[in-house]
Design brief:
The structure is a single chain. The protein is an alpha+beta fold. The chain has a single domain (10-141), classed as Muramoyl-pentapeptide Carboxypeptidase, domain 2 (2-Layer Sandwich), CATH 3.30.1380. The chain is built from six helices and six strands. The structure holds zinc ion (2 copies).
């Protein structure tokens, strides 16, 4: 279906302003794993961002999006909590970045250290403000919370 991988296309992961596309293969593999776990289409709202576009959308400096390691996604039909729990089951996201947004979408990235956050009414806060982390995974989640 996709022209980048089985379920993902270049158009949905390319920079929205210029069409530039620098995507880390680990991100695509992790998104495919999430697609398999969900057994539903994963909609990508934002993937790679060039530096100019990242500034224009108010992304943090050195956003994972500018490295091609991040995607903002949602899975229609699933709640934020359900999407979060699925993302935690993908090792590259579990060990990387997961942010949950009150607009109803998830940021996932494949950075090599763990980061968790929530964004509520424009403010970055602890992820527990929007979702509950299953007890078995709680210990891991208390470190780091860098937005991306
Ligand atoms: Zn661009
Ligand atoms: Zn993002």
């Amino acid at each position: 279906m996709g022209d980048l991988s089985e379920h993902f296309s270049k158009a949905e992961l390319a920079c929205h302003c210029c069409g530039q596309l620098e995507i880390d293969a680990r991100l695509i593999a992790a998104l495919e794993s999430l697609r398999t776990l969900a057994n539903k289409p994963v909609v990508v709202h934002d993937g790679y961002r060039c530096l100019g576009h990242n500034q224009n959308v108010g992304g943090v400096t050195q956003s994972e999006h500018t490295l091609g390691t991040a995607a903002d996604i949602d899975i229609p039909g699933l709640s934020l909590q359900q999407m979060y729990e699925l993302a935690l089951q993908v090792p590259a996201f579990f060990n990387g970045g997961i942010g949950v947004y009150d607009g109803g979408f998830l940021h996932v990235d494949v950075r090599v250290h763990e980061a968790r956050w929530a964004r509520v009414r424009g403010q970055y806060v602890g992820i527990q403000h929007l979702v509950t982390t299953p007890a078995t995974l709680l210990a891991k989640v208390q470190s780091g919370s860098q937005p991306a």
